[in-house]
């Protein structure tokens, strides 16, 4: 019988794990609390627009990730041509240093990456299923180390008989899940503490739509120091197929300080404040009055530090973790690569 592996989450790291284990002929089952796959690499549709309100694009990094993206299908895959420029706390805008870097996106939205990876596997995906705790089942002769894992969701439904479990939610949520797990073993405590020690940057995204379009020489503005209230501002119309001609849709990812202060503000109030800040940054009062808005809070948006090696302390018992928080860098390609490495270790452990 094939080894069974459960993966909590369907983001980039989870996709990397599933990809490796599918090639290794494991039975893979993924669980996600959301209505769709892909985690923070999220896409929405509204009033004829399509926009990525979490991760904005896939950046190849030092190792060229382009071949990986193309291996899952190059149709609808685009490199955003316009560069990313920078601004400072005073709102001064200057050319960036990374103008030639590729910024891969999809005409159908950034969620395409996870969808294409998972569609290429035989994995089973359970959506709208919030896993709240794990249970460790005794193995032969009552020995835990050759036992199996069960997952229990928010409705109390159990999913038993997994040889391994991979936790890919943000570190604080992984720590909460482990704290609720009744497994009296110091290895669980070490993994829990490693996850709990990872700090996160909170970001609130404000989406602003306008019935006009200006041509700027940049795709996005970023404040590297995050001292300006608008930490990131991008033009979704630079992505083919996202915004109708003559319209503009700005994705404003606010600074951590602003986001924490306004995290629970109603959408309209937060958007009014953000639109005024955007208008000041662009020196154009028309941006104070968007014709429609949207909002999303990311309490655990980006990891600030990497997990310690103790995060692997329970792998000999079939308990694994994967994600950008393992490496301490909030990039899709880094999360996927960490998932690949984790999947390979699972294969080595269970072979």
Question: TL;DR?
Answer:
This protein has 351 residues and is an alpha/beta fold. It has helices at residues 12-23, 66-71, 112-119, 171-179, 186-196, 256-261, 267-282, 324-327, 332-350, and strands spanning 4-8, 27-31, 43-46, 49-52, 77-79, 84-87, 93-94, 104-106, 124-126, 131-137, 148-153, 158-162, 164-167, 200-210, 220-222, 230-235, 248-254, 292-303, 319-321.
Helix proportion: 25-40%
Q: Could you say what the CATH topology of the largest domain is called?
A: FAD/NAD(P)-binding domain
Structural class: alpha/beta
Q: Which stretches are low in confidence, meaning pLDDT under 50 for 5 or more residues running?
A: none
Tell me the major beta sheet: 7 strands, mixed
β-strand amount = 25-35%
Q: Which CATH class of the largest domain is shown? A: Alpha Beta
Overall average residue pLDDT: 94
Question: How many domains?
Answer: 2
- What is the CATH-assigned architecture of the largest domain? 3-Layer(bba) Sandwich
**Roughly how many Å apart are the termini?**
13 Å
> Tell me, what's the shape?
globular
CATH superfamily of the largest domain: FAD/NAD(P)-binding domain
Q: Give the ordered list of helices and strands.
A: EHEEEHEEEEHEEEEEHHEEEEHHEEHH
**Strand segment tally:** 19
Widest sheet, order of strands: 7-6-15-16-17-14-18
Return Rg in Å.
21 Å
Describe the structure.
The protein has 351 residues and is an alpha/beta fold. The chain has 2 domains: 4-33 and 129-199 and 305-350, FAD/NAD(P)-binding domain (3-Layer(bba) Sandwich), CATH 3.50.50.60; 82-103 and 200-303, Polyamine Oxidase, Chain A, domain 2 (Alpha-Beta Complex), CATH 3.90.660. It is 26% helix and 28% strand. The chain contains 9 helices and 19 strands. The strands form 5 sheets. It has a 7-stranded mixed beta sheet. A hairpin with a 2-residue loop joins strand 3 (43-46) and strand 4 (49-52). Helix 1 (12-23) runs parallel beside helix 9 and helix 4 (171-179) packs antiparallel against helix 5. It is globular. The model has no long low-confidence stretch (mean pLDDT 94).
